[in-house]
Design brief:
This protein is α/β, with parallel strands linked by helices. The protein has helices at residues 23-37, 52-64, 68-90, 94-117, 122-129, 131-146, 173-189, 216-226, 260-268, 280-283, 337-350, 376-386, 388-392, 421-431, 457-467; strands spanning 11-15, 42-46, 151-154, 161-162, 193-197, 200-203, 208-210, 231-236, 257-259, 289-293, 302-305, 316-328, 357-361, 366-372, 400-411, 436-441, 447-453. Strands 3-5-2-1-8-10-11-9 form an eight-stranded mixed β-sheet, sandwiched between helices. Strands 13-14-12-15-17-16 form a six-stranded antiparallel β-sheet. A hairpin with a 5-residue loop joins β16 and β17 (447-453). α2 (52-64) runs parallel beside α4 (94-117). It binds aspartic acid and magnesium ion (MG). Magnesium ion (MG) binds at residues 16, 47, 214, 217. Residues 16, 47, 214, 217 line the site of magnesium ion (MG).
């Protein structure tokens, strides 16, 4: 039989950490599931309860340095949090409490191993931190069952096949599709709601992996793509994708619609609402995504679609502060700027360092690039070892790192071919007496990236939001050239 025939109209719903954060929140999730279950087949993907992944990671870090009492305390907190939720949802259900105990013990076993070893192997970490999602999935599935909805907790490691990049794995879509068709499709067709753990997967030979922090959005989109879902709904604790971070700007608006490209740019440039890799699997099949607030069910949320009929100008401004600017400059003409750039990029790629912004200028071919702060050490090691001879012989000036910068990004497909927009953005920023350190705009004109001093970043964001009238959605459409 052709795959997916009975999965027509499949809805994938992902509940984030806050939407799973307590027994009360899981009840709301279960209500939402019950409501949609009446309308169409469903698959649910869950995050760990809020802050649990942080707790697990911190406990493992303490284990590595031999802090036994911190490990004991971490394990106890994990157990208490989930036993409490279990009791509030399911009363004195022995089976639910046993599930919790078994999973907490599994975590404790790995943490103890790390404690004894004094070492934290990435694959053990991945196995251990996915236990947060396995705990939440078990509780929600059991609660759905108890509420009369057939449900089954599924470990994402059984259905998502990835490469072996522990901590930041990438899916292998065809192998994943086969597993999902084999494991999930039959259950869905029987009217069972699979409750799949987000965040984790496993290599083809079964070694546990995770998809990077915040990766359960990505898990959900992977499942949506391989199961040909009709829609993906991502439940969070905000009203949707906003024109700016509401903690920085007061008159933000929620965008009713954004394109995949816009949403991906926003996510890559610091908007917290979606994991950056979420949209890629969906683009080809044009599966629409909704970002919705499980704390405000009356709000429509933001719909992410493939394209608009009408261009909508600049849509939103984001910022990132945990970044550093690395500058490189040849000291004389022996080393060509292009060669230097090639060598540097190669070194960064090998070290798995992602470049957020890259600019180069002038006949001396200096260039600079922006990376995440937590990548600085490995980036510098890679650059300095790859270019050690050039540095030693003085062909290359010492590489400079400036951690006192921030990135602002203005995003919108409709900025394309809008004359004057970049000028207005720069003017708005300089009106705040803020010096622009570097600028990058790709030829797609989807994003203008601007690097400023860190202490001016928030001001610059507010200035751009105001200048482009982003909070007044109706007013932002720019006349086309
Ligand atoms: N629990 C994981 C994290 O906090 C994955 C997720 O919530 O998306 O990173
Ligand atoms: Mg998240």
């Amino acid at each position: 039989m052709e795959r997916g025939v009975h999965l027509k109209n499949l809805l994938i719903m992902k509940f984030g950490g806050t939407s799973m954060g307590s027994a009360e929140r899981m009840r709301v999730a279960a209500d939402i599931i019950a409501g949609q279950k009446k309308l169409r087949p469903l698959t649910v993907v869950v995050s760990a309860m809020s802050k649990v992944t942080d707790l697990l990671l911190e406990t493992l870090r303490r284990a590595e340095v031999g802090d036994k009492s911190a490990v004991t305390a971490g394990v106890a907190a994990l157990r208490a949090r989930h036993l409490e939720a279990s009791e509030q949802l399911l009363g004195k259900s022995a089976a639910a409490a046993q599930d919790v105990e078994a999973l907490v013990n599994e975590f404790q076993r790995i943490a103890n191993g790390i404690l004894m070893l004094g070492e934290r192997p990435p694959r053990s970490v991945d196995e251990a931190i996915a236990i947060g999602e396995r705990l939440s999935a078990t509780l929600l599935a059991r609660f759905l069952q108890a509420s009369g909805i057939k449900a089954l907790a599924v470990n994402g490691g059984e259905v998502i096949v990835t490469d072996a990049v522990f901590g930041n794995a990438s899916p292998q879509m065809e192998a994943t599709r086969q597993k999902c068709i084999a494991k999930l499709a039959p259950a869905i067709e029987e009217g069972i709601v699979p409750v799949v753990t987000g965040f984790n997967g496993a290599t083809a030979d079964g070694r546990p992996t995770t998809l990077g922090r915040g990766g359960s959005d990505f898990s959900a989109s992977i499942l949506a793509a391989v199961l040909d879902a009709q829609e993906l709904w991502i439940w969070t604790d905000v009203d949707g994708i906003m024109t700016a971070d509401p903690r920085l700007v007061k008159d933000v608006a929620v965008l009713d619609e954004v394109t995949y490209a816009e949403a991906a740019e926003l996510a890559y440039n610091g908007a917290k609402v979606l994991h950056p890799r979420t949209l890629a699997p969906l683009v080809e099949k044009q599966i629409p995504v909704w970002s919705k607030n499980s704390f405000a069910l009356d709000k429509p949320g933001t719909k992410i679609v493939s394209s608009f009929d009408e261009p909508k100008g600049a849509r939103a401004v984001t910022s990132m502060s945990d970044v550093a600017l690395v500058s490189m400059e040849p000291a004389n003409a022996v080393l060509s700027g292009t060669r230097l750039m090639a060598r540097a990029l190669d070194a960064l790629a090998l070290a798995n360092v992602e470049i957020l912004v890259l600019t180069s200028s002038s006949y001396r071919q200096t260039f600079c690039f922006l990376i995440r702060k937590h990548d600085v050490t490995s980036a510098m090691e890679a650059l300095e070892s790859n270019l050690s001879i050039e540095l030693a012989h003085g062909y290359l000036r010492p590489i400079e790192v400036d951690g006192n910068v921030g990135l602002l990004a203005v995003v919108g497909e409709g900025m394309r071919g809008t004359p004057g927009l970049a000028g207005r953005v720069f003017t708005a920023i300089s009106r705040e007496n803020t010096n622009i350190i570097a600028i990058a705009q790709g030829s797609s004109e989807l994003t203008i990236g601007i690097i400023v001093r860190l202490d001016m970043l928030d001001k610059a964001v507010r200035a751009v939001h105001e200048e482009c009238q982003l909070g007044k959605i109706a007013a932002v459409a720019e006349p086309r050239a």
